[in-house]
Amino acid sequence: MLDLIIFSAVLAAIILTILTTRKNEIHRLLKPWISKLLVKKWMDSQQQKFGKKAARHPKTFTETGLLCDKQTLLTERPIALVNTMISDELLIYGTDESENGICVQMIRNVNNTTNANVLLTLQQNVYHASFEGDTPNAYEFSLGNLKLELVEPLRAWRVWYNGLMKHRSNSSSDSQEKLVHVVLNFLWKPLSNPFDNRKDGNADLLAKQLFGKNSLVGKDITNLSEIVPEGYAQFGTLHGYTIIHEVKTEMYLYGFRTREMNSFEDLRKLCNADEFSASLKTNEIDGVDIKAKRFEFFSICDNGVGVRLTAFNGEWTAGWILWPSYKITEIKNINIPAAEFFKDLASSLQKPMNLQDRNGELISIQINPTSIKTSSDYKSTEVTFLRNKINGTPANAVLIFKSPILQTHGTNVYNLSESHCSMNVQHKYQPSFKKVDGSINYPRSKNENCYFVQFCEPLCLNLPLVGGKGVLLAKLETCGHTQKFKTARGFCVSTTLFNELLDVERFCSIFKSVSCNSNSDEQGLEVVCIEIMEIIKSGDAARKISPLIDSYIESMLEKEKMYNITFAVRSSGVLEDGTELSCAGQNQSFLGVSKELVPLKVVECWASLFTFQSVRYRLNHGQPVVSEMGVVIQEMVDAAAAGVIFTADPLTGNPFQMLITANYGLGESIVSGSCDPDTITLTRHQNLATRQNEENVNIPNQLSSPLTRPWWNAVTVEKRVLGEKRTKTVFRQKENKDEGSIMKITTNDEESANFCVSEETAVRLGTVAAEIEMYMGQHKPVDIEWAVDQLGQIVILQCRKVTGLDAWTDFEIQHELDSPIRNKMDRFTTANSGEVLPKAIHTLSEIIARILDHNVSSQVCKKKGRGFAPVSLYFANSCMLSHQRLILNMFHLLYSTVDKQISTPLLCVEQSVLGRLVIDEETLQIAIDRYGVTTAASGLMEFASQIKIFMTYKSIVENTSNTYNKFTLDYSNVPKMAKDVYDKISEDLIHIYHAANTHLTCTNVSTSSQLFLFLFLSEGKKPTEWDNSIYEDVSKLLSAVNNVESAQLPENMNQLVDEILRNGENFELFLQSSIDKALEWIQGNEKVSKALDIFFEKHGHRGFAEMDLGESSWQMNPASFIPTLRNIIKNKMTRNEQEKIQPTVKTVFKNDVELLDSLVMKPNSITRRLVKWILPLCRNGIICREKSKSLLVRTIGQLKLKYSYLAELMVKEMLLPNSSLIVHLTHFEIGQLVNRDVSTSHILQKAMKRQKMYPLLETVKLPELSVGMPVPEEIDTWVPIDDKENVQATPVSLGVARGIAKVCLNVEEAAEIIQPGDILITHATDIAWSPFFPLLGGVVTELGGLISHGAVVAREYGLPCVVGAVNATKIFKTGDEVILDASKGILAKICDK
């Protein structure tokens, strides 16, 4: 004991001496480890952003992580900026092997402003734009014509831009910059789970911040919050296209999406106070110390290896290596300090940057300074795209410098309301009127007693009080009356009066009595609408408001002679003229109304809110049936000419082109489409030199009015097209108190032969419109209704933003469900997957594909072990989608286990899955580079995993069979509310998950056992040496299997056919009559009907594309079974006749020994023993695979019924326009609709477009094998017959549609013959045609213009539409198959093939 005490004392003394004498060395050795532990502790303390992680063995579908939880949704949406020192930034960028790239940044600031930056590099050309404006709303990242749209949290975003960009060419000696019109349409998809900047940070690199020579030594660990911003990032792809100079370029880019919440106060602590203050005053970042900047470097090479590095405070803060196998590893060491790398960019890039990850893998990056392509300065953000090499392989890189100080503070430099697209240049010309914030939310409680509001009152900016048209007229009024234009005097009747005089609650109750969204109850809805309109008109509302309106008009007009003034009374619904919906023509307006009749017309405007077409329009756009309405009352303008001017091309969004449509008299003839108007195209300056010259002119103060022409407002006439103008609508004022007269009269020959407005007037209109756009549009183009009075004065009647430019395109609809491709050398196949989903799936079935992929990936990952890429919740890497077709990732599923040479087992797997051999040396080498050569240990582990599956699969199948054999979902206890049913369906998806897991396990057993069977029978031969005898023997061995459900189905169907042939009287009637008559024939025969019921009890859940939620099973839709049944009867009758001549003989073997003796290859004794051992497993595998597939289909069938039930409830609750639309929504979108937490109009419009495009997607055929993104085979060829049946017209809504022509000259005729997808050909359309638009595939009219009713509504629905199709109603006839190519303005008849 004493010896132990002495030894301990000596040891303690030695340790104390070492600690005293070697203090600095010990401190140096321990500090990194301590720092790393502190960092990890800090990281663990950070809040989890994305909800719980997926469970390994989920018991509920929520535990799978495949559905978006509420926390993740809130994290992805814009945050509420309640802290004045916080900004919210979203950045999306990508690059490709052709040196093309995109970077889009949006920063929301607490002062209700948003900064936006867009950069595009394309074919040695650089395009960029920077602008700032008021934040339009609190639920999306958007500003002007830039939108970053959340499609599904962490799974998909949409990048859309349609506007001006500054252009510079790197390949041209001409350095002069120009403005060009650029369109960007891209879909962003993830290729990784999100990296939380703090929770999932890089501990190795962050630890160096705590003990490095330039780091925060001695400071508290919480200072990491100053270094690492709150936020997250995701690696992913950008797939889409650009349009520049009408040239469309498709691009597939790789990059990152980052989200950061920057703290202004934290950053100020790290900067020198003088530098900080100076940077805010000058809006410059070059003088700020490098530690005030954040840096991001991303590079990806042609073989798919990628690197992402971030730095702050002169040190690396995070680093990741992105492997093409989907695996991502942290970087541990970097040989070049971040401060050196970024501070002296040119010199640091001359030597390679070496990176090492935690697994010891080394990456070397070599960048040639001369290869830097371009640098674009956004003041707060600089972006550089460059070429480099990763481990000697060519690569592309993106280098981003950000100054979070300026981002957080807001630069306030770029203001499109003053410069439209400032491009870092400030204007001397600024509007003299004060900018109005239309997003102000005035409290309604203060305005309850306000019945009338004049346009000039600030209260008229309250949208809920005066409606959309009233707000826009109020904004126009604040421009002031100038010498250039004026506005018609007037006021608004508020919604307060609407609510006080009308029984809104009663209207709601009446609508609840009819299924408003049911297609089968359209007549009932129309009856209800008529009833409510009659209630409003027959009431005493007009009498009650008459003295109020009379008094207000007299006080407003004071002593003017009342009998000389008449009015226009226009509807102003709270949903009208918004950013998403125009409601054009849906509600009524009246012209030439005398003062005495104004109250009556106000009531009629209210009643028009409940016309059938107005109610149907709101239902189709996800808006409430019962809404509110203000009414606008304006002084009538006696117009010599009138029309509409668009400040950008309404089809393309091109802001360089203004379009004017005009006619004599009032604009009613143009809006109604009853005339062929004059069309004038104006153009704005494109050369920046012109702009700079104009800005250098010294403008006298007295001329600096709102309409002083800056460079952007300078317009010239480019083209004038003379319209026929056969008629005009005019106003005839009377000399007494009676109502003025609105008449439609015929123009004379001289009027028709001349333009109704001069070039000088057109230029004046363009100048006025440009100023109004800058003031009203918030960076968006507007369409303005104008008139020129008898004195030549321009009068602005109303203005609204152009809607529909951001509608989803055909390209986006076709690719929105596409899985991201990790590398363009990936291999994909449709083999085998075509049995599961043989055609394009409906959008709702994306959740089925998601479940299948997660199960397959989980099984592959489990089989491969820890070193394999983990399963992702946010993207597919095994069972993927392309053009809504299911494809298989061959590398992930087939080639992840390879040897140095092409092995026999690998070829056997190919033979089992693909039915042929396809691998070559190039593919093998790619697989080796990604996954490495399979070692003996990993091979043994995979074999052991497979044996375990062989031993346990029977019990799995038995448990699944017991659960799902008679499976039904009982929703009797679920409240009959759409939200409750949706939540229950979300829970019940776990049944599909478990059934799919069992089916995939059985498929694994069947495939693997057949692999062994091939290996045994080949007796050492390579598959390249196999002949047909081995396939014949395998087929013979596997065909001797009983109790296979897929084989029982045709047997049971034959029994049903026999019953029909034996007991069916006059069954020829069944063969020859219509489907409905055939069903009646079956139901009328007791024995046949009973036989059909027995068959449906066993197999009624089966059908074509049976795993697609959009396809009905046989039992759900017996009519779909009739054609199959008829075909079998006919074939059986033919076969019976043939067998009388030559009967069919089937060979039956007594036992397996006799079966083996009959084999062509004559296996040896060892092979016979091995085959006898594996054969039962092969047979059971086939039986269990087919059984489990049937159980999976039965489970999916139950979900089909519940989704159908949900659709009915959503129709009843007015959330869907019709029940059939539900299969064209994703499960996530349905959740958004039932939760009613966002505007749903865009969701329904996208679903309707999917519904129209689905027949085209069904025809898409992908090649069996694809390298990179699958490219569809040629879909079809559309050929016009001849020039006589090929009409040229004017496009007013772009797109292509193919369908059956329906020539309808009136609404009554259309109601009888219009079917979904038809192409309507008519003379002209007005509001009465509105209910047909959701059904149509396209619209063709002989009359009309860009702002006629048909054109406006077609653009909102995304329908192809052309006008001016001369004699189309005579050239085409109902029933013709036609193609409408609105992009080219062509309507043509299809040749018979």
From TrEMBL:
Gene3D superfamilies the record matches: ATP-grasp fold, A domain, ATP-grasp fold, B domain, Phosphohistidine domain
Residue stretches making up the Pyruvate phosphate dikinase AMP/ATP-binding domain: 464-807
Q: Which residues form the PEP-utilising enzyme mobile domain?
A: 1314-1385
The entry's family comment says: Belongs to the PEP-utilizing enzyme family.
Q: What is this protein called?
A: Phosphoenolpyruvate synthase
